[in-house]
Amino acid sequence: DAGITQSPRHKVTETGTPVTLRCHQTENHRYMYWYRQDPGHGLRLIHYSYGVKDTDKGEVSDGYSVSRSKTEDFLLTLESATSSQTSVYFCAIATSGSAYEQYFGPGTRLTVT
Amino acid sequence: EDQVTQSPEALRLQEGESSSLNCSYTVSGLRGLFWYRQDPGKGPEFLFTLYSAGEEKEKERLKATLTKKESFLHITAPKPEDSATYLCAVRDYSNTGNQFYFGTGTSLTVIP
Predict the structure, then answer these.
(1) I want to staple A92 with a disulfide (CB 3.0 to 4.6 A). Which of A102, B21, B32, B98 is the partner?
(2) What angle do CA A22, A23, A24 make, to 5 degrees?
C-alpha cells in the first residue's frame, strides 16, 4: 500500500459539466500520474507531474487539465465533460532514484451521461 | 503507433499447467520494463522491473525475463488465485519526459 487515495470513487455527471478528481498520497513522492483505462486501450497517460506546479501532457491530454499545488495532491479536471470521457481513472505515483516503480490508487469510475 | 503489445489477449490454463505471457515493445529509449497484476475493480499492482537484456526476476510462481525486443512472464504450476489481468509497461525517457506506456494486458484464468 503506497498510501494513495482517490476521491470520489464513483461519479455520474452530465455532459458539459466540469468535474474534478483528486489524488492524495502520503509519502512525498515526486512523480504523480493520471491514467484512464478503457476496454481495448489499456492504461493511457493523461498528464503527469514531476513536482509542485510542474506538469506535462501525456498521450490523451485533450479535454483535461491538472494542478499540483502541494506535493501530496494531484487534481485532474475535466473542463467540460463529454461522453467519451466515461472511463475508469487511476492515479499513480512513481518511486524515484533508479526504480521508478509505479503504485496505483484504487481508481475512480466516472460516467458522463 | 503501438509501443507495447501483449499476447495472448486471454489465456485459460488448468491448475498446474505452466505457460508464458509475451510483451513486445518498440520504444527507443527504454528505461525499464514493468509487469503488473490487476484484479477486477482494482488498480494495478506492481510485480517486477527489468532493465537490461538477460535480466530475470522471480516471485513465487512468476518469473519475468527480458530480451532486447520483448519480455516474458513465465507462470509455473499456476493456481486459481493467479487468475488476473497481467499488464506490461515500458518507461520511455527518449522524449522530453518520463512517461510510461502500457500494453492492453493478458487476461489469465486458471481453472481448478
Answers:
(1) A102
(2) 120
A28 touches chain B (CB under 8 A): no
Instruction: Rounding to the nearest 10 degrees, give the CA dihedral for residues A95, A101, A103, A109.
Output: 120
Cell of B10: 486471454
* Residues B4/B71, Cβ–Cβ less than 8 Å: no
Judge whether A25 and A4 are in contact, CB under 8 Å.
Answer: yes
List the single best residue of A100, A103, A109 to mutate versus B (max B Cβ within 10 A): A100
Give tens-digit pLDDT for B73-103.
Answer: 999 999 999 999 999 999 877 655 677 889 9
**Residues A66-77: pLDDT tens digits?**
999 999 999 999
For the record, the C-alpha cell of A77 comes out as 479536471
Tell me how far apart the alpha carbons of residues B22 and B8 are, in angstroms, rounded to a whole number.
Answer: 7
Cis bond leading into A39, ω under 30°? no
Do the Cβ atoms of A107 and B45 come within 8 Å?
no
Closest CA–CA distance from residue A106 to any residue of chain B (Å): 5
Chain B residues inside the 8 Å CB shell of A43: 44, 87, 89, 102
Chain A residues in contact with B31 by the CB 8 A cut-off are 100
